[in-house]
Amino acid sequence: MKKKTLAMFLALCLLLSGCGFLDGSYVSVTPHREQKQTQQLDAATVSDYEGLLEALKQIVSTGQESAVLYVPDYPSTTVLTGVDMATRYVKQSDPVGAYAVESIQCELGSSGNVPALAVTVQYRHSQAELRRIRQAGTMDDVRGLVEDALKRFTPGIVMQIAEYQDQDLTQFVQDYAAVNPQTVMEVPQVTETVYGSGRGRVVELVFTYQNSRDDLRKMQSQVEPVFDAAVLYVSGDGAERQKLSQLYAFLMERFDYKIETSLTPAYSLLRHGVGDSRAFATVYAAMCRGADLECLTVTGTCSGEPRTWNIVREGENYYHMDLLRCSELGGYHTFTDRQMEGYVWDYSAYPACTGAETEYIEPTEEAPQ
To answer: Which of 59, 100, 197, 337 has a 20 to 30 A CA-CA distance from 239?
Structure first.
C-alpha cells in the first residue's frame, strides 16, 4: 500500500509539471519517517552525471522535498548507475546533504516519450533549520561565529565552511572562555560533528550548559559592571607596577574568599567570593587587559598540585604573580623565575622572568565592593 501511495504521489508531481508518468522505477533509499515540510515542485533537464549531481545538490540546498528532472539526452544505459552514484555522493560527501538528508528516492519513467526522474527527499532537519545554517568562508570566520554564540549562550551553531581546515574547536571554546571571563559565564560541554568531504564542510557544534540561558545572561549582566569598575579604579597616569597593584587590591579585597572550584568561575568569584586559582588568574588577567596592561595566564603545578597564576609585565621585565600566594604574604608581590620554588610550568611557552627581585606593595586604599 505504501508503494502504491508513493507511485500515485509521484505521478501527481509529474502531472502538475505537465506530463504523464509511465513505467519504470529506480529506488536508491527507502524513507522511514514522514516529513512535515511544505512540498516544493520543480523541473530541470540534465544530460550527464555532473548535471544530475549538481541538480540533486541544488534540490537539497534549497530544502525541496520533491522535484522532476528530465533526462532525454542522458544515456539510458548509464542513467541508473548515475542516479545511484549521485544520491550516495549527496548523502555522504556533499556537506549540506550529509548534514540534512535522511534519504533520497528516485523513480525513472517517461512523459510523452521523454525520460524523466521523479525525486523525493526526506530530511533530518526542517527547512527552518536549514535556513539557520551560517555561512563561513574561512576558519577565521568560524571562530568569529563561535565567539558570538558563546557570548549569547546559544545551544549550538551549524556552519557551512567554504575553506575548511581541521581545528580543535573544543579547545578553542575553552581558550576563548579563559580569555573572556567577563562574557563567558560557563564553559559548555562541546559536541562537534563534521559533515561532508573535500574543501567545503558543514560543522555542527552543540553546547551543553548546566545553567539555563536566562540564568547565564543574568550572571553576565551582574559581572560585566565589575570589570568596567576595575578599569575605572586604575589611575590613568600611574606606573605599570602601581596599576597592577591597584587591580590586585580591587580584586583581592572584595571578599574573604573561599577556595573552591565553580562551574561559573567569574560570577562565583566576583559575586560570592568563591573561586580557585584558575578563576583568580583568568579574572585578574581580563581586568589587566581592560586597563591596557600586559598579563598572561600560566597553567602548571605548585608543590605537585594543579595551579594557575599570572605573568605580568612591568616596564621591560616580566614577573610571575600568584594572587593566592600574594594574599598569604599580605599584598601585591612579583617573583622571578628563580623565586618560583616548587612551581612547574612550560618554560618555553612563556617569557623569562629574570628582572630584579622586588618587595610587595602594601595596599594604599580600600577597594570598592
So the answer is: 337
